[in-house]
Structures are given as C-alpha cells and as structure tokens.
UniProtKB/TrEMBL annotation:
<dbReference type="InterPro" id="IPR000415">
    <property type="entry name" value="Nitroreductase-like"/>
</dbReference>
<dbReference type="Pfam" id="PF00881">
    <property type="entry name" value="Nitroreductase"/>
</dbReference>
<comment type="similarity">
    <text>Belongs to the nitroreductase family.</text>
</comment>
<protein>
    <submittedName>
        <fullName>Nitroreductase family protein</fullName>
    </submittedName>
</protein>
<keyword id="KW-0560">Oxidoreductase</keyword>
<dbReference type="InterPro" id="IPR029479">
    <property type="entry name" value="Nitroreductase"/>
</dbReference>
<feature type="domain" description="Nitroreductase">
    <location>
        <begin position="17"/>
        <end position="74"/>
    </location>
</feature>
Amino acid sequence: MTSRTAQTSAPVLDALAERWSPRSFDSAHSLPEGALRGLFEAARWAPSANNSQPWRFIVTRRGSESFAKIEAALTGNNQLWAGRAAALVVNVAEVEDAEGTPRKFAEYDLGQAVAHLSVQAQSEGLHLHQMGGFDREAVRAAFDLADRFRPVSVTAIGALGSHEQLTEPLREREAAPRVRLPLEELVLVND
C-alpha cells in the first residue's frame, strides 16, 4: 500500500500529516477500559462558543448491545466495514441548552472537539474514520436522546487492519493516493 502520510506544502505536526481515515480495521483488536480516556480528554479541552462545551458522545465497544445499535443504524458502504472497529462513537451536538436557548455554534464546536479527539487518537497509535452515513432518527430512538441533542456523525476507532479484507471498490479507495485541494484554493483572501 502507498504511504498515507500527507504531502504538505508547509510543515505540520506529524499527528496531522499521518492522520487518515481507513476503512480497514483489525477486528481482533479491542480497547481495554480507559484506553479512550485521552481522546475524550483532548475533546473536552477544545474551544467552544462562550465555553458552552456543547459536545456529547455515545461511546460503544464492539460486542456490546449499544455497538450493535449504532452498527445497525449505519447506511451505505459504512455497514460493510465499520463493524470491525473496536469502538463506534456517536458525536452529538447539544443544539439548545436545558432552558431551550439555541446554541448556534453547537455543531461547529462539536467538530472542533472531534478534530481534537482525532489528533489525539493518531498520536496514541489509533486510527479513526468519521461517517455521516447513518440514520440519525434510529440513533436518537435507540439511545432515547432528547430533542436538544442532535446526532451529527459517527466515528469508528481502532487499530489498522489489512485492506485485503475490504470489498474491491473499498480496497481501491483505501489504497488510493491522498488528495487535497491546493492551499491557494482554500484561502480566499490573504492580505
């Protein structure tokens, strides 16, 4: 398989350059109790609007009833590979506070928390893949989430497995070179 390290136009932290989203997880790998604590500690310290910390997580491990509920809610190709991950995490935004006041930046803040979590995971030798393809209402019902909590994404976490276990179309995507838009296309104004 080709190198997964990003070819950057400027130096970045190794944990960022080496981070990628595999679909091939080692189904024999499990996470002992406490193994994810550092990831969620990193998420806890992400910045948020007015320090509201509107992120919540549903953390499940392969083999649990909760894991099976999330796996069943996955859609498309995600159902073909995500069940091999050691953990599935639903990333939830608290879109309004307990008094009903909307939190306009809740999903943005949740994204920052998950980004912190992903960099910490990479630095600890874990891999993860974030997914938007899942039935949000099925997850809401399975975990009896109040309306103020919005499931936004699911993250598969675990150890890297062989890409040979994937179906052919997914195997090709797994081995394809990493591509990003040039930095010059992303910065709209640079005065």
